[in-house]
Structures are given as C-alpha cells and as structure tokens.
C-alpha cells in the first residue's frame, strides 16, 4: 500500500482540568529554561546556571532593584488593566502608548506651571484630573469615529500614538532644561513639588510612600475585576464584544457602550502617564511609555482578560526584561542575546496554550502494520 | 447484473475531542444509484461525507474506491478519485461568471481558455438537463442557479461520485423537482449520487436505497421501496415517534399587529420589503413562507424594532389598555418600555439571539439585566430561571454556567426559545426555530409554539419545511422578493399552491 498516510494529526482536546493546565504551563517554562541553557552554553560557553543567577540578581538583587521591578510590573499591569475593557469589547485599542504620553504630558505641564503656586493637595488633584481627562480625550476620538462612521480603530489608535509622540517632542523643545539639549530634565528638582514620593503624601504614608503606586494599582485591579464581571456595564461590554447584532437585539446601544468603554480605557491610560511622571520619572520624554503600551496587549491576552492573572504575567515579563538587561551587562553579551532568551521563554509559554487545547496523535500506523 | 461498488467505507471513525462524530461507520454506494444518507443533526452525516471528500482525515478505518483501498489526504485527492461534494453553503466567487468559477482552482494543462470551459459547461448542461448560462455572473443568480453552478463544477472535474449536502434546503418545491430530474439523469449515466437530507418525503421519492446514521453510528441500509416515513423515522430516532401535529382552532382571535405598507431598504439600497400589508391575530400561528432571503428576516426585525422602515406603519393593539401603539421608529428598548412584550427567536441563534461564550445564566439575563437598581447585575433571578428552564425543557448542559456555544443545536435553541417564552410575550416571532434540530427537539419546539398560541399569543413562524407549515400554521403568508404574494388558509391550501406563490414574481417578469 502507498505510504501516503500522514505521520500525525492534531485533535482538539476536551477541557483540561485547571491543575493540569497549570502543570503544562509550568513544564513549558522549565523546558524553556533548558532550551535557553543549551543555547547559552553552545553560543557563549558560559555556565547557564550563573546566567540565570545573574538574571535573578538583576531583578531582585538589591532593594533598589526589587523596587524597580515591582514598580515596572505595576505600571505594565495598570496599562493592561486599562486596555482590557476595550479588548474585551473587541475594540483593538493599540493606542495606549499615546494615551499614556498625553496623560504624562498633562501632568508635567501642571507640575511645571502650577508646582510653585498651588497647595500640594490641590496640585495632586489637578494632576490626576487633567491626566485622566487628556487620556480620555485621546481614547474617545477614535471611539467616536468608530461609533459614528465605523472607521478602523486599529489604524486610528495607532496614528493617535504618533500625534502624541510629536506633541511630546514639541514640548521637549519648548520646556528644554538646557538650551539645545532637547530634553526636559527633572521637573521641580529643588522643590519636589508634585512628586508622589515626597511632599504631603510622604507625610501621610511615611516610609511606605514607595508603595503608593502599588497600592493604588492593586485597588484598580480589584475594581476592574468587579467592573467587568459584576456590573451592568461589564455585562454590556461582554455582549458587544461577542456580537454587535446580539447587543442590538437586546436593546443595547452599541455606540454608547463603545464611547463609554473607550473613555474609561483612555482615562486609565492617562492615569498611568500621571503615575510615571509624578511617581517615578519626574520628567517626560517620547520614551516615557517605553513600548509598555504594546507589551500590555500581550499581558491582557495571555491572562485571558482576568485581572488577577495579569498580575502574574506582568511580573514575569518585567522579570525577563530586567534580568535580560542584567546579563547583558554582567557577561558583556550583546542586548540581542538576552532578547533571544526572552523570546525563547515567551515562545514556550505561548506554545503551551496549544498543547492545552489540542492533542497531537500519531496516525494509526500500528493498525496498518497489523493488517 | 450486480451493480459495482463505487465507494465503500469500512469502520470509519472520527473523533473531535470528547465527541465521537463517527464510530465504525460502514457504507456502500453503488454505481448508477441514488443513495440517501439520513440521520438527525449531529448524527455524523456531514462528517462522514467530509472524510470522503478529503476535508477531514479519518482517525481509523479505510475507504475503498472502485474496490481499491485509497488514502484521501485532501480535496485534491478526492477529486482525483472522482469524488465531488456540493456543500450546503456555496463556495463561489460572486464577481466571477459561472464558467470562471468552474475553471477556478482546476488545474488543466495548456493555456487558460475560458471559451473552451464555457463550451464544455454547455455540453454538460445539455447532457444532464441543467439550465445554466456559463457567462452569467454569480451575483445575478438565484439560489438555485448558484447550486447548479456548484453541481456542474464537480461534474466538470470528472466526478463519478457526487455528494450533495442538503441540496433542497434552499429550493422551492418546483426547483426541487427540477433538481431531482437532473439527479435521475446522472444516475442513468452510471454515476453514484449520495444525497444528505432531512426531508423524508424526498428520500422516498428520489432514492434507491437509504442508509441511516444515529449518534455517529451506522444503523443500517434499506431499499426505499420497502421503507415508509414512519419506519425511517424509527431507524433515525431509535424509537417510535408520533409525527402528528396538533392544530387547535384559534380562540377568539383579535388583531394584535397591523402592518401597513411596510417597506425597508438594505444598506446597499436594495428594497428588502415592499409594501407589505398584513394583520397578525392573537391566538393563531401565522406562517411566513418564501425562498431564503425573500424578506422574512427583515420583516421580523422590522417588527422587533431592529430594522428601520422607509415607509409604512406597524401598529400594536394593546388588549389591556385598548390603545394602539405605533412601533415604527422605536428601538427595542423603547418598545419594551411601553410594556409591549415582543419575543423574537432570530434565525442566527448564536450571532444574534445568544452570547455564545456565556452560560445559560448570562444568556437569560440578556433581556432582563437592566432590572434592579444600582450598577450591579442581579444573578440570582437569572440563575433560578436558568435552572427552571433546564429542568422544564430537558436542556442537556454540564451546568448553567457552561458556554452555550458548546451545547448541541437543539439545546441552544431550547435556551433561546425558553428565554423568549419566559418573558410572557404577547407576540412571539420565531425564525426557522427547528433548523438543525433533531426530530424530538423539533416537536418540543412545535409544542411550545402551540402552548403559546393557546395562551392567546400571536405567533409568527418563519419556516422552510412546507409540509410542517401546512400542518402547524393557521394561515400562511408568502413572501417573494420582499413582496407579499399571497395569504392562504393553511387548512385548505396545498404545497404546490404555496410553491407557486413563492416564485410568482419571477414568473411575472419572465
């Protein structure tokens, strides 16, 4: 008989028990580490274990590094939380980057112009409100066009990013610290007005003021979880995301849901801009968002829109980035080498989802042989 | 003389995850015969045929063509073996002509010559008695013409074995007769024809033998001459089924919905409804018949407030208040705020009536989630309703939170119909509510509609099986190209008469 039978084929699996699914995911990370080890050893001749130790050291080696890792993970988490309502509605908001920048720019403006004149509580209130509003407007513009004329929101939100970047470059020149430098430098360096980690807030939180960002974002995580799963708005978002026809059938105004959800999504991104500028950077540049607006999309999807799963995933991704940076400097490796390691690990994590949903079967060769 | 076997399946098995779609199925098709493949939805007919046409690859078992074992790895292999399948949903390029569609994807040696293709298409048409213009564009074609293109396409590629998946679902009775004549010509030519269908009377008039599948397993094959509708049903279901439908006389009917000159336009500016005048009475089942796409969907959506009218009015007579409310220009929400309970079972169950990724609770909330104050949804009452529906309608689901998308067609429909009836409607509209359902589920749905009718609800039933409509409905309104071409008493009319009304427009123009 002809040897045409395929070697294996793919079959959809029954739903896997939760513990087993997590076991597969864990196994995939371990396997990824093994593959990375082989890669490291064969290319650089280094001991993989010392490389891994250096990664860990880079992320958690000192108190300062832990604080950086936590802070970065929290910012990434907050962006992921911000875009999740939009993504759940199947509105592809890839404009988080721009929404963060305008929120940050607005915060910087308030710090610069009102830092000396306003009392601290009013200053903070103003920064929060303005950053929320700017992000909201940035999110609402593409949503309005989508709702009104059904424009493509992917392109629209993407292009809004470039406008935001241009806006911030313009401000960088306008507000530049040293003539010709093109950078703003640290805002209110002497007075520290509008810095989250100083001023009246540290008076309230004392030495815990570093955890203000974290606490705030964890509260937002809980709120988003409740909003998506237990409120009427959250229900409407799920219905619109599943099928606009079903939403119309149920009497839901699709337009209103799109506008409302994007307003929320944009405003939260704007708030991230505030947290970045006031909470850690104390300045703004076109790199303030640093691509996190896009990485957050990965976080949101990998977590299947579950805010609590997002905590774990943003930590993992931040750990990888931080650790990769550390090994690059410790071992004199090119940045690309650490990117390859990150890539291998992500590939295995994503690949594990395939094995959770499908099974690969060897074709019935035995039967054939038996005949 | 003993007929030769064109195709033979031995112990074919195909699994999809937990589901065994085909289990050790054996089937034989002879040359020069028409074989009906009968089975309820989900019994594995289409899976079996997809394995023959190379879309799926069997997990185990073997296929023999002309007595030789073969391996079919893809549609190309199937074509090479002379197996051609006509799918239920057409796979044609709209902006191409018939001949271009037929040539598409067929690799012939030499220069691409569309005239030669057209000439051969004409040859095939003459031989078997098709009516087809090879130069006509697909978008200009009626559904039955498109189907003809699909059939000619597989013949053009030299198919000796034709598989047709529910070819009559979209045809009028007259078009069906034409198709059957062509199929008989093919049979006389020595080709093997396999036809998948639900309609028992078609099986009985057309085929030589009938093979029956039940729940993925092969039940048996009988000579059509020795079969009856009742015996075939019993084979399909595995038990005796009473095919009789109750039809009580309407009790004290009064006008509930009055439609005057109702007209609507599609987004492309085509008139989908053209001056429809119709009165719907309480306590009756009004059937809407017509070829697919004649305006049935638009009519129901217009009443439900989902389709804007460009002309006309829809008037609702409220029995309790005696007031007449104009529904035109109102959204579904505004209609409900008037206290009017319109229930609507749309044709596209998962795309319009339900949210596939949600469980029963999420879905029964769809109509009522706004109730209650505050920003939070109330899940208690929907949970109780979901539990009640599950018990009352025997909905098979692992749990009320299990995504409805993963339920079988019959259970999906029970969730939808159950929710709509639970809203205590005064008007109940159902579009193709039994499409894709097995016989027992279908009769459950018919019973539910009859119960509503007896409660005095005005029931509007859009159907495709005229035999059922003639037994179930009180009156039948016939639509053709968006126009109302007839309104007949279902107790007195015949299938042929309704069939004539379904195509009247075309006849007048011709």
Largest pleated sheet of chain B: 6 strands, mixed
CATH 4th-level superfamily of the largest domain in chain B: P-loop containing nucleotide triphosphate hydrolases
* Silhouette of chain A: globular
Number of strands of chain A: 2
- What are the low-pLDDT stretches of chain B, counting only 5+ consecutive residues below 50? 506-510
Class based on secondary structure composition and strand pairing of chain B:
alpha/beta
Q: Which blocks of ≥5 consecutive residues of chain A have pLDDT under 50?
A: 365-371
Topology-level CATH name of the largest domain in chain B = Rossmann fold
Would you give an account of this structure?
- The complex is a heterodimer of chains A (371) and B (510).
- By secondary structure, chain A is mainly alpha-helical.
- Chain A has a domain at 69-311: ABC transporter involved in vitamin B12 uptake, BtuC (Orthogonal Bundle).
- Chain A contains 15 helices and two strands.
- Chain A has helices spanning 18-44, 48-60, 63-88, 96-114, 120-149, 153-174, 199-205, 212-230, 232-242, 244-249, 254-281, 292-302, 307-330, 335-357, 365-370; strands at 8-12, 358-362.
- Chain A has a two-stranded antiparallel sheet with strand order 1-2.
- In chain A, helix 4 (96-114) crosses helix 11 (254-281), helix 8 crosses helix 9 and helix 13 runs antiparallel to helix 14.
- The radius of gyration of chain A is 24 Å and the shape is globular.
- Mean pLDDT of chain A is 86; it is low at 365-371.
- Chain B is α/β, with parallel strands linked by helices and 510 residues long.
- Chain B has three domains: 5-237, Rossmann fold (3-Layer(aba) Sandwich), CATH 3.40.50.300; 255-341 and 425-509, Rossmann fold (3-Layer(aba) Sandwich), CATH 3.40.50; 355-423, no CATH class.
- Chain B is built from 18 helices and 20 strands.
- In chain B, the strands form four sheets. Chain B has a six-stranded mixed beta sheet, sandwiched between helices.
- The longest helix of chain B is centred in the middle third of the chain and has 16 residues, at 173-188.
- In chain B, 45% of the residues are buried.
- The chains are: A mainly alpha (371), B alpha/beta (510).
- Chain A binds chain B through residues 1-2, 4-6, 9, 11-14, 230-235, 238-239, 242-243, 245-246, 248-251, 361, 364, 367, and chain B through 15-18, 57, 59-60, 69, 71, 73, 304, 306, 331-333, 336, 344, 346, 348, 350-358, 362, 365-367, 369-370, 375-377.
């Amino acid at each position: 008989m002809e040897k045409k039978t395929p070697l294996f084929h793919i079959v959809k699996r029954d739903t896997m028990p939760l513990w087993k699914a997590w076991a597969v995911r864990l196994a995939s990370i371990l396997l990824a580490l093994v593959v990375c080890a082989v890669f490291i050893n064969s290319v650089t001749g280094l001991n993989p274990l010392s490389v891994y130790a250096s990664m860990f050291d880079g992320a958690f080696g000192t108190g300062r590094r832990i604080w950086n890792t936590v802070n970065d993970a929290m910012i990434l988490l907050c962006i992921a939380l911000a875009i999740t309502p939009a993504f759940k509605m199947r509105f592809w908001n890839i404009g988080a980057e721009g929404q963060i920048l305008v929120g940050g720019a607005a915060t910087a403006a308030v710090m610069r112009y009102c830092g000396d004149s306003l009392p601290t509580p009013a200053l903070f209130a103003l920064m929060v409100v303005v950053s929320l509003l700017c992000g909201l407007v940035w999110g609402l513009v593409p949503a309005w066009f989508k709702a009104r004329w059904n424009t493509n929101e992917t392109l629209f939100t993407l292009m809004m990013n470039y406008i935001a970047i241009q806006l911030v470059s313009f401000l960088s020149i306008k507000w530049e610290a040293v003539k010709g430098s093109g950078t703003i430098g640290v805002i209110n360096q002497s007075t520290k007005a509008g810095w989250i980690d100083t001023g009246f807030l540290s008076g309230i939180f004392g030495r815990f003021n570093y955890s203000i960002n974290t606490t705030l974002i964890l509260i937002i995580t809980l709120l988003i979880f409740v909003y998506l799963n237990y409120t009427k708005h959250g229900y409407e978002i799920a219905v619109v995301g599943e099928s606009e026809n079903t939403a119309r059938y149920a009497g839901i105004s699709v337009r209103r849901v799109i506008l409302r959800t994007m307003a929320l999504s944009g405003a939260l991104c704007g708030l991230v801009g505030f947290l970045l500028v006031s909470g850690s950077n104390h300045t703004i540049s076109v790199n303030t968002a640093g691509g996190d607006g896009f990485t957050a999309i990965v976080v949101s999807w990998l977590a299947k829109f579950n805010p609590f799963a997002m905590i774990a995933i943003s930590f993992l991704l931040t750990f990888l980035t931080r650790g990769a940076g550390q090994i690059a400097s410790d071992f004199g490796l090119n940045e690309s080498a650490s990117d390859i390691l990150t890539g291998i690990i992500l590939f295995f994590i994503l690949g594990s989802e395939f094995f959770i949903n499908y099974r690969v079967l060897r074709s019935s060769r035995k039967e054939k042989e038996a005949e | 003389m003993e007929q030769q076997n064109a195709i033979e399946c031995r112990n074919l098995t195909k699994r999809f995850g937990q589901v065994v779609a085909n289990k050790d199925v054996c089937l034989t098709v002879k040359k020069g015969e028409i074989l009906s493949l009968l089975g309820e939805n989900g019994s594995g007919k289409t899976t079996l045929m997809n394995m023959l046409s190379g879309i799926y690859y069997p997990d185990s078992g073997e296929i023999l063509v002309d007595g030789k074992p073969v391996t079919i790895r893809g549609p190309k292999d199937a074509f090479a073996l002379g197996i051609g399948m006509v799918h239920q949903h057409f796979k044609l390029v709209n902006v191409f002509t018939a001949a271009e569609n037929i040539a598409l994807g067929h690799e012939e040696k030499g220069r691409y010559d569309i005239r030669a293709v057209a000439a051969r298409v004409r040859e095939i048409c003459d031989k078997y008695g098709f009516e087809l213009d090879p130069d006509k564009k697909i978008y200009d074609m009626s559904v039955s013409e498109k189907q003809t293109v699909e059939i000619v396409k597989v013949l053009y590629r030299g198919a000796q074995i034709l598989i047709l998946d529910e070819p009559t679902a979209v045809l009028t009775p007259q078009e069906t007769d034409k198709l059957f004549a062509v199929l008989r010509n093919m049979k006389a030519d020595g080709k093997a024809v396999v036809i998948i269908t639900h309609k028992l009377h078609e099986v009985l008039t057309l085929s030589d033998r009938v093979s029956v599948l039940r729940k993925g397993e092969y039940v048996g094959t009988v000579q059509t001459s020795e079969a009856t509708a009742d015996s075939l049903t019993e084979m399909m279901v595995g038990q005796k089924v009473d095919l009789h439908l109750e039809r009580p006389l309407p009790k004290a009917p009064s006008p509930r919905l009055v439609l005057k000159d109702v007209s609507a336009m599609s987004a492309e500016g085509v008139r989908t409804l053209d001056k429809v005048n119709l009165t719907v009475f309480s306590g009756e089942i009004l059937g809407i018949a017509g070829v697919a796409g004649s305006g049935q969907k638009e009519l129901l959506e217009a009443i439900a407030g989902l389709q804007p009218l460009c002309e006309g009015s829809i008037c609702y007579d409220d029995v309790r208040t005696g007031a007449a409310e104009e529904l035109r220009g109102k959204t579904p929400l505004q209609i409900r705020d008037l206290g009017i309970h319109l229930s609507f079972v749309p044709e596209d169950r998962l795309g319009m009536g339900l949210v596939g990724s949600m469980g029963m609770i999420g879905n029964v909330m769809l109509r009522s989630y706004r109730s209650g104050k505050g920003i939070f949804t109330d899940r208690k009452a929907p949970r109780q309703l979901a539990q009640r529906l599950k018990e009352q309608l025997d909905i098979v689901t692992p749990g009320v939170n299990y995504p409805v998308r993963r339920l079988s067609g019959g259970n999906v429909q029970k969730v939808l119909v159950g929710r709509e009836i639970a809203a205590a409607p005064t008007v109940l509209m159902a579009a193709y509510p039994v499409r894709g359902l097995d016989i027992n589920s279908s009769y459950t749905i018919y019973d539910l509609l009859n119960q509503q009718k007896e409660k005095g609800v005005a029931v509007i039933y859009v159907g495709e099986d005229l035999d059922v409509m003639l037994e179930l409905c009180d009156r039948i309104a016939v639509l053709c190209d968006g126009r109302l071409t007839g309104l007949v008493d279902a107790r007195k009319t015949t299938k042929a008469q309704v069939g004539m009304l379904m195509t009247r427009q075309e006849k007048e123009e011709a």
